[in-house]
Write a structure and sequence with these properties.
The chain is globular and about 50 Å long. The two termini are 32 Å apart. The protein is mainly beta. The chain has a 6-stranded antiparallel barrel with strand order 9-10-11-14-13-12. A 6-stranded antiparallel β-barrel has the order 2-3-4-7-6-5. Strands 8-15 form a two-stranded parallel ribbon.
């Protein structure tokens, strides 16, 4: 069964504003593909996480990132602990397979990289950074931003969220290196601290879980984010949209027992993000409300609807990346 709606290739901001005004510019975090249950993860599908980006150095994937509007992304500060020539970085959007980017991907040059000033090295606070693209990117079914959480939003222990990335260790993923997804439950800070002190090899001071960190994963190990996932999203559904709850930051090894993943907590950085992106919206959770204004743009269904299918046939994939 084919989709009765025509899917436009891109939505310039000026066109969106002219067609539907400011309310429907909230295109962030729309649900698009039903989920199944990045060690022990599963392949993602096209359009499933359209905010996921690959940050590349000299054309090689180094970290993940999340698109938050037409020109800004959020990633981890530790990806740029030794910041190099900006002209050698690029952000690739709309990409599912690293070795087979496809016709919907865009390779975007970088204008600015802004690591949080509090970051002081591995496992410290402030492991978050902003990336500004040199040219705004047009939104499409394959490139959309994720919503950011207001400080009022809580992510309670046990809440099921998801993490995506091209780890563990990009070289370990079989060709064509498809983006992986993994469901992870939130772990409360007290429990996470206790786990990290269990069977600790090092003597005090222990690696401590700071207030600007949030843990997610499994005490038994086996499933986790890993190398190559750094900077990517840990995201949860709030209301009817995907919200960026955390940024892949650190852990002790990958998928080790009593060592769940540790993420930079987005709600700790609302003011800092707004310093550089003053017009960005932070989503508040409204009780008793069923939102109908998310991604309500031409040719796009409401998030509660499931796409019947992808296009019957896609253009032949190519390794040539189109410029942003």
């Amino acid at each position: 069964m084919s989709n009765p709606h025509t899917k436009p290739g891109a939505y310039p901001l000026s066109l969106l504003s002219a067609v539907c005004g400011l309310p429907c510019l909230r295109v962030c975090g729309r649900r698009h593909v039903s989920l199944t249950r990045i060690v022990e993860g599963n392949d993602t599908k096209e359009e499933e996480f359209p905010w996921q980006a690959s940050v590349q150095w000299k054309g090689v994937h180094m970290c993940g990132a999340s698109l938050i509007n037409q020109e800004w992304l959020i990633t981890a500060a530790h990806c740029f602990y030794q910041l190099r020539n900006l002209t050698q970085y690029r952000v690739v959007l709309g990409i599912l397979q690293l070795q087979n980017p496809g016709p919907h991907s865009r390779a975007c040059p970088v204008q600015r990289i802004i690591p949080n000033p509090n970051y002081a090295g591995q496992t410290t606070s402030g492991d978050i950074a902003l990336i500004q693209l040199a040219t705004p990117v047009n939104f499409s079914d394959y490139i959309l931003p994720i919503c950011l959480p207001d400080t009022s939003i809580r992510f309670p222990p046990g809440k099921e969220c998801w993490v995506t990335g091209w780890g563990p260790g990009v070289v370990d993923l079989p060709s064509p290196q498809t983006l992986q997804k993994l469901q992870v439950p939130i772990i409360d800070t007290k429990t996470c601290k206790s786990l990290y002190r269990t069977n600790g090899v090092n003597r005090p001071p222990y690696r401590d879980i700071q207030d600007d960190m949030i843990c997610a994963g499994y005490a038994e190990g086996l499933r986790d984010a890993c190398n190559g996932d750094s900077g990517g999203p840990m995201m949860c559904i709030v209301g009817d949209v995907w919200v960026l709850a955390g940024v892949v930051s650190w852990g002790e090894g990958c998928a080790i027992k009593n060592r769940p993943g540790v993420y930079s907590r987005l709600t700790s950085y609302q003011n800092w993000i707004q310093e550089y992106v003053p017009n960005i919206e932070f989503i508040k959770e409204s009780k008793g409300r069923k939102s109908r204004d998310v991604a309500n743009i031409i040719g796009q269904k409401h998030p509660d609807e499931v796409w019947a299918s992808h296009a019957a046939s896609a253009a032949v994939s190519t390794l040539v990346l189109l410029a942003c």
